Amino acid sequence: MTIFIEFIPNFVHFIGLNMNTEVFAARHIGITEKDLPHMLETIGVDSMDQLIYETIPDDIKLKKALDLPEGISEHEFLSHLHQLAEKNKVFKSYIGLGYHETLTPSVIKRNILENPGWYTAYTPYQAEIAQGRLEALLNFQTMVSDLTGMEIANASLLDESTAAAEAMTMLFELRSRPQKKEQVSKFFVSEEILPQTLSLLKTRAIPLGIELVVGNHETFQFSDDFYGAMLQYPGKYGQVHDYASFVENAKAKDIKVAVAADILSLVMLTPPGEWGVDAVVGTTQRFGIPLGYGGPHAAFFATKEEYKRSIPGRIIGVTKDTDGNRALRMALQTREQHIKRDKATSNICTAQVLLAVMAGMYAVYHGPDGLKYIAEKVHCCTKKLAKSLEACGFDQVNSSYFDTVQVKVKNTKRLKELAEKKGINLFYVDGETVSISMNESVSESDLNTLISCFLESHNLQEKSLKDLELDDAIPAGLQRKAPFMEHEVFNSYHSETELMRYIKKLERKDLALNHSMISLGSCTMKLNAASEMLPLSWPQWGNIHPFVPLDQAQGYQEVLQSLEEQLNVITGFAATSLQPNSGAQGEYAGLMVIRAYHESRGEGHRNICIIPASAHGTNPASAVMAGMKVVVTKTDDQGNIDVTDLEEKVVKHAENLAALMVTYPSTHGVFESSIKQITKLIHDHGGQVYMDGANMNAQVGLTNPATIGADVCHLNLHKTFAIPHGGGGPGVGPICVAEQLKPFLPSNPVVKTGGKDAITAISAAPWGSSLVCLISYGYIKMLGAEGLTNATKAAILNANYIKDRLKGKFDVLYAGERGRAAHEMIVDCRPFKANGIEVTDIAKRLIDYGFHAPTVSFPVAGTLMIEPTESESLAELDKFCDAMLSIRQEIDEATAGEPNNVLKNAPHTLGMLTNDSWDFPYSREKAAYPLTYVAENKFWPSIRRTDEAFGDRNLICTCAPIEEYMEA
Ligand SMILES: *Cc1c(COP(=O)(O)O)cnc(C)c1O
Q1: Which residue windows are transmembrane per the record (predicted)?
Q2: Which of 535, 546, 733, 940 has the maximal Cβ count within 10 Å?
Q3: Pairing of strands 316-320, 326-330
């Protein structure tokens, strides 16, 4: 079978009885040798090579295979990662600074973190098949609102520092005194702020014209040109300040205040909401999320109800469904903040849903009393430590503290040596001060070892420290009185059996990749292989603080450096930064790097960013955040960039042209053949080319961003490179850059990283979300050069197969010059309006057939964008096509005058089907089992369609009692 050998040489091992069970590509790629003749025939080509020839323009096709090693087996990969894990040294890290060791409850680890029912789900845009994760996120929001004492919280942000920057910019947008807005641009930042947060605030402040003023909150005097302030609670080295009078003073001057707070401390401390602050942000990492050498972790963002329309990220809200039953969905314009494009104030798209779900479950499992126990234990440990060291003659600096103390020592050098010998990390503030943070994992014997390090390093004798007085370390005025988490959900599931069943109950309401194909265009919902995921649970990867000395993280360093090199090879670029925690953050990082490049050449005035009309909404939002002015260029009837229009705009703005942002293949799913002409045009006029790499799944091994003439791109590792979507995050959005941009790659203030003229931080952690980088590393390592390329070919094959199976029934809007789609296609649903059918009706009807809808109305309203990926089998592709064709027939049966039809009423719930009355003009069987395959694997949506308008009018974003929203 020669065709097959051409296609996937690895599969040669497959032939006959000799099935090679070690080839990962054969597990990752869904189609097999046997499927090819039929698929190629359906498409109308003789070979895979012909299809690729007809899909990718000749002048950008790679001449050589990827310069990467052969793939390795899953077994080999796992033992490789075991070996690398040994190179990470798991110390007791008391470094703090926003990261703490935590105990992930095993029931959460096994049933969520390691469960594809949770980690392979998509962002809950289709509420009817997402009630489980929506409820888990509502729990998270409620927990955050309660602990911070704020009215409303979102469903997570990327990390604490990013959340702080979002607060700074939100308050900037909301600043009062509009009559002299330009002059009110100063933002006070307490010197107690975490160093990584300060670095990130700098990055974000500069392009917006915000001037940061760092100082001591106790002595600082506001002048008229301040609009806001940011405080850290407790301070970076643990001092607990009473900010009440600062806030009062600021409010009197119409200055808005944000507080970055430690979530666990809020169990014991007065919540900032009680001072009347405007926003509270922070991380929920210490609620059961592994350190993971920096991430991923879920940050939180809480604010006042009155700012609800300005909140970054997504908010889950309560509404009702068609039958009036309680239903959850993403609320307000936060469903798609960046839809506002260049009017957007934030570019957050992917956030940290999986981690927020875990942190919320940690709160559900422990309940308010469990959290109090944990907080008190941590606090008590800290007091014991402080009092013991004081009893031994050391000076403890913090007059009040929750979990962190500062201790004066004679000689940090000696202490550091000894501590590291005993497997302990502290934070060394300066030559004679150390900062030590306690956490829930600290035991009595850990404390003793720690204290003995101090004694030994100062040649002091061991001492009995039995009856220490542990007087209050939190002043009476700062002790929390307000109750929290009183809702039933936080007071019901404290046994493992109960929580296990609660998690399962929610999981059952959701459709994830473990049920069926999720063909979301632009999102690349491919396999997240178990072998890629397994190492995430190992302590040598999970339990590493991001600020440990490099020699303790050699396993990580090897993985991260190799991943950077792998991505350099795949993109054709010179260097990579893994820091950005999402694609949108990558866009922002890439544009900031371009900005720094222009500045370095004395061309800092270049500030025009040209973006095609069809671009993803995050593109213009990121450009604005980077201080650029967006100029929109048209697309022609074929969906390509209108080169004449582009040329006009480039020439007009040549003087100030900073960059073009272009998605390739385009968001229309087409390899535009004029791409090289386009990138040259930009270069000829002094601009740089930013390529949005969300569609990289159509490029890997066949072409690359460097070849098309781009200078920088981001990659969505959570799309192309197998990191699961987690229901809306985590994400990793590294940027890969050409040589001239390399010096400007972002840095970190604590651990050196980035280029030689690095911009300040993009994310809090030096290498972003290191833990999940293991997944992409494994994906590339196991597929190898050939497997990666074959995955791309299979993705293109599958898309074109669907396109041709739907031919004649659904119009595909765009195609390349030779009639081929790339890895996705847009089907037009607008003509069905004549029958009264909207694209949403098709999306909802697909649920009855057991499928998640493709991408709805992006990039063209009234369409579906379908992307099958390489991981789906021919059988699954056929099921999906059968469903679409069956729906097409149902559309024909529908008439505009009669909205009581099977499409308009979709999805159909079990409640409808089993109701004694059935007044629909079609059978129950047609409603629920429209095709025979459905019966054997039926998915039942838990609600009917949600009422968006009702929910937006009556915004409730916490687990309020049911009566409350019904009356609203
Ligand atoms: C997904 C996507 C983005 C944004 O990526 P996030 O990781 O969600 O921030 C940007 N552009 C395109 C074309 C995308 O599909």
Answers
A1: none
A2: 733
A3: antiparallel
Q: How far is the CA of 331 from the centre of ligand 1 (A)?
A: 20
Query: What pLDDT is recorded for position 89?
Result: 98
Q: Ligand 1 center to residue 735 CA distance, Å? A: 13
Distances (CA, A) of 500 to 102, 283, 352, 835: 20, 25, 22, 46
CA of 336 to the centre of ligand 1 (A): 12
How many helices (H) and strands (E) the chain has is answered by 31, 26
Cα(715) to centroid of ligand 1, in Å? 9
- What pLDDT digit, counting tens, does each position of 361-385 carry? 999 999 999 999 999 999 999 999 9
Tell me which residue has its CA closest to atom 7 in ligand 1. 583
Quick check: helix, strand or coil at residue 576?
A: strand
Residue nearest to atom 5 of ligand 1 (CA): 583
Residue of 334, 349, 520 to mutate, ligand 1, most atoms within 8 A of C-beta: 349
Q: State how far the Cα of 255 lies from the Cα of 238, in Å rounded to an integer.
A: 26
d(CA 673, CA 60): 9
pLDDT confidence of 968, banded at 50, 70, 90?
Answer: very low
Helix %, strand %, coil % of the chain (to 5): 45, 15, 40
Residues framing ligand 1 (Cβ under 6 A): 349-350, 522, 582-584, 616, 618, 663, 667, 692, 694, 716, 731, 733
- CA–CA dist 60, 542 (Å, integer): 41
For a ligand 1 pocket test, name from 616, 661, 691, 735 the mutation site with the most ligand atoms within 8 angstroms of its C-beta.
616
Taking the complete model, does pTM exceed 0.90, yes or no? yes
Query: Any idea what the Cα angle at residue 305 is, between residues 299 and 306, rounded to 5°?
Result: 120
End-to-end CA distance of the chain: 67
Within 564-648, strands assigned E span 575-577, 608-612, 629-633
Phi, then psi, of 797 in degrees rounded to 5: -60, -50
Of 318, 317, 286, 290, residue with least CA distance to 300:
286
Whether residue 69 is preceded by a cis peptide bond, meaning omega within 30 degrees of 0, is no
Ligand 1 nearest-atom number relative to CA 585:
9
